[in-house]
Structure formats: structure tokens, C-alpha cells
Amino acid sequence: MMYEIDETHDQNRRSWVASANRAGADFPIQNLPLGVFRLGGGRPRAGIAIGDMILDLPAALAAGLLEGDAALAVLAAADGRLNALLALGPGPRRALRRQAAALLDADGAAGRLAQAQASSLLHAAAECELLLPVEVRNYTDFYAGIHHARAAGALMMPDNPLPPNYKWVPIAYHGRASSVRVSGGEIRRPQGQRRPVGQAAAPAFGPCERLDLELELGMLMGAGNPLGEPVPIGAAHEQVAGYCLLNDWSARDVQFWEMVPLGPFLGKNFSTTISPWVVTPEALAPFRCPAMPRPDGDPAPLAYLHDAADQGRGGMDIGLAVWLSTEKMRVAGAAAQLIIHSNARHLYWTPAQMVAHHTSGGCNLVPGDLIGSGTISGPTRAELSSLLELTAGGTDPVALPNGERRTWLEDGDEITFTARCEREGFAGIGFGRCSGRIVAS
Ligand code: MN
Asked: Of 170, 269, 335, 353, which is the most buried if we count CB atoms within 10 A?
């Protein structure tokens, strides 16, 4: 029932918003991701992306175009963030999806009524400022990409790259919520204590020399659970209220000097970027897939992490891409270069397993908690989803078409993540952009 397909997924539906019907559009009428935007210096407002426009939800409510649970959902976001809306759970979120689809449909009475008021209901996305969709309450970052864990581990322990607990425990660290920022900002190169590359063993304090990206999915939590009451694996998927792209910017020199024995700290807490549009579990329903098959010899998940439905449909087939644009490329008018592509199918643990594990000791999740998947690398070189892996620890640079090379990120580099879901018989959907530009310390 969670991943059910209904009329909102019909690939033949078209919107009266023409840009939503273009081939390859990220936001066709079958997607309808939620976000928060601002016009000029105005108040933050909840909206839905449709083509290159934004449906203004408070305006639709004020015009009397939404009713029942959908109206309740929009009222819950009246404070200009989605926490309380996501906390309402799947019912109101689905009602809003169904009614918004009807309003934006090229056919039908609801669509005609909305189209007649288009000038007050729609804004060009390019003229709006997109804001963080939620007040991020807590941030936890998992390590569920097994190819990443293996490739990153091999740089430290070539003979035994995977930690002995990896196939038993969904590993994570508690990150920092205060420095989570929405796509489009500048990332200031952090200063930190690290051992400068190729120099003496004594550490020094200065600008990071090994600045990196991590290609991840972000998951935003819905209602959450009371302290001391774990979420059972069979109900865990209902806690995930939305998905976005997440860049876990990492200062590798700082990280590797500080992380033993308590894990990452300043190497990762200076900035995390997420994409502004929250893709709902409903929009993703056609693109669910089996959990990553465990190779022969791997242990079965312990009972608290095992659910037959989750194993069958808890994975996600989401194509992911990383684009690099250097200062030199932009000056020359060259397009950003695709440097990495991967797929969320390569996650060893499903979102439900991450939620069940996170709460298994009694920890409470709250609305607006952000959970990162961990770097989603795949088995081939082009799917190694951080520079740490892609350049083999900074020893094998990436060559760009203009002759530039990169081992780590340089000032002026802009990194953009994109993602797309495609399946025969369904309209493809995208996630929009998650980007950030490096600026000097
Ligand atoms: Mn990470």
C-alpha cells in the first residue's frame, strides 16, 4: 500500500503548464515535489515545482482550490517550512498530491479553474529564491554505500577494506544540523588542523588542502517516534516523508587526522548542501526496486532490520550525476562536465533499515530530521562518488576536456548534483539541482 500506483502516476497526464510537458523535464505533473520559496523580500511560502514554475500553495488555498486533508497540509506549512506538513504523514501528503495534480492537469474542470487564475497561482521559479524546505532539527549521515565503504576503506586498509561490522550494522555518524544549507550557496574552504600534504608528520593549522564532495541522498523524516519507542522495520518506511540530494562536503586532510577514535567532526561539519525540492515517497513509488541483493556468504539482516516487503520494494532506482564547472570553464563559456554517475540501487541498506536501526536503541526522530544515505558509489570507476575514491586518494587526477586536472576541489569549482528516475511505462522525474561553489578560506 505504501508504494501504490494511482492516477497521479499516469504517464499520459499533461499539465497546462507547458514547461512541465517537455521531454526530460525534472518536474512533470507526475512529480510534484514540495519546497519553500520567497518572492523578493517576502515571507517564505510553501510551493510545488511544476515545469519551470512554482505553484503557490497558500495562494491556491486562499483561492478555495484545496480542501480537506490537502488544505490541512498547506495550513501546516503556514510558518514557511515543511516540518509540520511532513509530520502529518502520508494521508494529507497524498491528498495534497492528488488535488495539486488535478489543479495542474490540462484536462478537467479543476485544471480549467486553476488555469484561469494562473497569474496569481504560479511564479517563475527563476524569479524566486528557494529556501531550506525544513528547519533541519538533527542530521545523521549513514555509510550505506558499500562500494564507497570498500573503496574508501581500501585506501587505509588495502587487505581488509570493510570494517568487520559493516554487513551487520548500518554505520552512521551524528552530523551537524546548523550548517546544512540549501543549494546555490558558496562553500568557504575550511581551515583546520591537518598534516599538510608531503610535509613533516607534525600537524599544522591552515586551509584544507583536500576538499572533497560526497554524492548522497537526503531523507527528511515525518512524524518521528517517542523517546524509548523504536520504530519497527515494517513501519519504518512511513517515517521517510521526502527525499532530496545531499552533498556531504568533506575536508579529507582534517577528517583523517581527527577521526580516530570518535569519527568525523570538523572535517564534515563546516557545510552540508541539500537540494530545495522534496521528492515525495508517492512520486518515487514507480521507481522502488528490491533492496541490493546480498552476495552469497553475506549474513542475512538481523530480525529487527529484516522485513520481506522492504527487501522486495525498499530499494530505489535513482540515477545520480555529479557535474563540475571550474572558473576557467565558465570564463570560456564551457558547459559543466559530468565527472561521476551512480545509482541509489547500490545502497547496501534501505532507508527503512536506516530508520529502524537509528531508533532501535530508543532514539527519537523528530519532524525535519535529515538522514544522509552515505556516499553512493557503484562498482565501476565512473561510479566512484567522491574525489577521494575517484582519484585514488589524490594520486590519479581527473582530466577535464579543457586540459585542467583535479585531484581535490579548487577555489572557484562549482559542483552540481542531479538525479533522474526512469522506468518504462512511467513519466520520468528529476530532483532539480544541488550545487555549491568553493570560495577561498
Ligand atoms: Mn557522508
From this structure: 353
For residue 279, give the amino acid letter: V
Cα 4 from chain centroid? 22
pLDDT in tens, 202-211: 899 999 999 9
Q: According to the model, what pLDDT value does residue 197 have? A: 63
The H or E element containing residue 437 is strand 434-439
| Dihedral Cα 40, 42, 46, 51, nearest 10 deg | -20
Residues marked active site are found at 148
Using the mean position of ligand 1's atoms as its centre, give its distance from the Cα of residue 142 in Å. 7
Q: Specify the DSSP element, H or E, that contains 102.
A: helix 90-104
Ligand 1 centroid from CA 391, angstroms? 17
Name the 3-class secondary structure at 356.
Answer: helix
Rounded Cα–Cα distance for residues 105 and 114 (Å): 9
Integer Cα distance of 29 and 106 in angstroms: 10
Q: Answer whether residue 417 shows pLDDT above 60.
A: yes
> Of 294, 133, 292, 92, which is closest to residue 218 (Cα–Cα)?
133
Say whether pLDDT at 92 is over 60. Answer: yes
Å from CA of 383 to ligand 1 middle: 16
pLDDT at 199: 64
- The C-alpha atoms of residue 153 and residue 374 are separated, in whole angstroms, by 14
What per-residue confidence (pLDDT) applies to 348?
98
Q: What is the pLDDT of residues 298-329, one digit of tens each?
A: 999 999 999 999 999 999 999 999 999 999 99
pLDDT band at 155 (very low <50, low <70, confident <90, very high): confident
Question: Is the separation of the CB atoms in 308 and 218 below 8 Å?
Answer: no
CA-to-CA distance for 314 and 76, rounded, in angstroms? 28
**68: how many CB neighbours lie within 10 A of its CB?**
11
Question: What pLDDT does 260 receive?
Answer: 87
Q: How far apart are the CA of 246 and the centre of ligand 1, in A?
A: 9
Give the side-chain half-sphere CA count within 13 A for 285.
18
d(CA 53, CA 40): 16
Distance from Cα 349 to the centre of ligand 1, integer Å: 14
Pairing of strands 53-56, 122-124: antiparallel
50-67 pLDDT tens trace? 999 999 999 999 999 999
Q: In terms of residues, how long is the chain?
A: 441
CB contact set of 120 (below 8 Å; sequence gap of 6+): 56, 59, 63
Any idea which of 173-187, 189-203, 286-300, 314-328 has the lowest mean pLDDT? 189-203
